[in-house]
Fold these 2 entries.
Entry 1:
Amino acid sequence: MSIATARYGSVARAFHWAIAVAILINLPLGLFGDAIQQVTGPVMPTHKSIGLTVLALSIARLVWRLGHPAPPEPAGMGALERRVAPVIHWALYALMILVPLTGYAMSSAGNRPLDWFGLFPVAKLPVTRDTLLYELSHEGHEILGLTLGALAIGHILAALRHHFILKDGVLRRMIG
Ligand code: HEM
Ligand code: HEM
């Protein structure tokens, strides 16, 4: 069992954790928004503001990542995981952008104004109801949102397996 020494850089780690926390808050707000707002008052403006933040951060993160490769994989990693992990990671990058983008497109077609935590208005995308783009973004937001949730759970279980069962230092690459 080899111990991974190479780590993700501080910018990659900051992006990872800021976006992870935001998504892990936003998934339940999207899924259980109706039930939550019975207790707390409106949650969708917060869901949209957090989501728009994830969109901006994820685009910046992807651009950063393209110029900054991940550290080399730990030597002890199995052949299957060596193939699967990058596929899951790139799928997460795609969904981190597509899920908020479809939410943004869908909400642009609605009547309610968009803003960022009530601080400033956010321009709407040119999407109107009764268009295929609206239908696709609405369906897409739900299906891709659930896919993101499922992949995130698998990803987190994989990280915990590395830490507690394999004890190979992979989680520390992202914490350090
Ligand atoms: C981290 C980013 C986001 C995640 C993970 C996320 C996730 C979700 C999920 C899982 C749902 C429930 C889908 C369903 O069961 O119908 C949902 C609903 C919704 N989301 Fe998002 N979302 C994100 C960003 C956004 C953004 C940026 C907007 C708009 C600016 C938005 C607007 C909405 C709206 C309006 C609904 C309710 C849709 C409906 O009930 O028909 N979301 N979101
Ligand atoms: C929804 C939440 C999350 C998302 C979207 C996410 C996304 C990602 C992505 C895209 C990468 C690849 C980074 C790259 O190569 O540029 C990554 C790496 C990593 N994530 Fe997450 N992550 C999430 C939550 C978590 C959590 C909660 C943990 C810990 C329990 C975690 C642990 C890790 C680790 C250890 C790596 C590095 C894997 C390696 O060294 O190959 N992630 N994550």
Entry 2:
Amino acid sequence: MNFSEFIRNRHSPRAFLPDEIPAEDIKEILLDAQSAPSNSNTQPWNVHVIGGQKLKDLSAALIEEFDTNGLNPDFTVDYGEGVHPQRSMELAAKMYGMLGIAREDKEARTEFVRENLRFFGAPYSALMFIPPMGDRIRAAFDQGTYAENFLLSLTAHGYHGVPQGMISLLAPTVREFLGVDEEYKLVTALTFGRADESSPVYKTNPGRVALSETVTVHGIEGLGL
Ligand SMILES: Cc1cc2nc3c(=O)[nH]c(=O)nc-3n(C[C@H](O)[C@H](O)[C@H](O)COP(=O)(O)O)c2cc1C
């Protein structure tokens, strides 16, 4: 597979097998992630990797908090107006369609939120916090470069990963469980393991918009998007 095929084949499965993966592989993947670029080489990623019974206990704490008090994120979940919430709604419609969950079936949709909180059955998750640095935008960007390295390294090693912003919607519960300082804000979880290829949501294939919708070209001849 060439690099373009490789990178375009990465995808987010939302179902995992419970199988453990070798600790050496996890270490290699962490080293690959760590090689990401960052603003002034600040490397502002602060990552807690959890597996085994610890992850199950965290999942139970998250579900209890969600069922009792609801969500409590560090950062707002606001996609603004126009194309961005539209794309998000298209993804949700596709995903719920694949699961056979109707739009008006609130209980089934809530159960799928709980499935997120069960880490989709995966044996590992990396919880990604950013430190107090100004308005945190630069740290959040750097966390993103780290996360993409992580995802691509998982793919290269034959595993899968899915970022889970959903976990960050219960940030105080995660911090309390892990003993993390309140100043460290949770951006996302990156949940990983071997994917369950038999699941209807193994590959959602949400597609991407045309380049012309996201890229504007200045002064380059022949690059018609
Ligand atoms: C920061 C971030 C947070 C995400 N949070 C969730 C999540 O909570 N639950 C989920 O099922 N997918 C989540 N995703 C996965 C996206 O929905 C997915 O990347 C997007 O639809 C494109 O699909 P693909 O990864 O299969 O190419 C998240 C992705 C990112 C980058």
